[in-house]
Design brief:
The protein is mostly beta strands. Helices cover 4% and strands 52% of the residues. It is elongated. About 6% of the residues have low confidence.
Length: 140
């Protein structure tokens, strides 16, 4: 049985060639960190955390694909969670893809909890694409 920690929905975000943060979770915590007043996870110890959802992208006019990553923290320099998803998409085309990342590092049990971001990076895009909508859930 899983417990949903949060659900995040964003829309209309530019996705240029540089890796860009598209969505950020609130601060989440489990175990002792949750007992100190952070967003509760409903569990006393961390099993794997699953970050999953869907992303609807319109590719830039010269792009050929886009990469979706999940990272710990709030920036593109955070530790990458799982393998990146690379989706081929023709220039100026739109596409919907699912993603799922699993974090088994006990990251959310640290003092103060933690956050996750979903990032997107367009490949060969001289004109930025658009994340039309992204929906994600974080579960333990």
């Amino acid at each position: 049985m899983s417990t949903t920690l949060c659900r995040v929905v964003v829309s209309g975000i530019s996705s240029p060639a540089a890796e860009t943060v598209i969505a950020t979770t609130p601060v989440l915590a489990i175990g002792a960190a949750a007992q100190s007043g952070m967003q509760p996870g409903g569990a006393s110890s961390q099993g794997p955390v699953r970050i999953s959802g869907t992303i609807d992208v319109t590719e830039g006019t010269s792009g050929v694909s886009y990469t979706v990553r999940c990272r710990q923290g709030t920036t593109v320099s955070g530790t990458e969670v799982g393998a990146a998803l690379v989706d081929t998409l023709a220039a100026a085309a739109s596409g919907l893809a699912g993603f799922s990342f699993e974090d088994s590092t006990n990251y959310l049990a640290q003092a103060g909890g933690g956050q996750y971001v979903i990032t997107v990076q367009e490949t060969s895009a001289t004109v930025a694409g658009t994340v039309v909508q992204l929906e994600m859930e974080v579960e333990i």
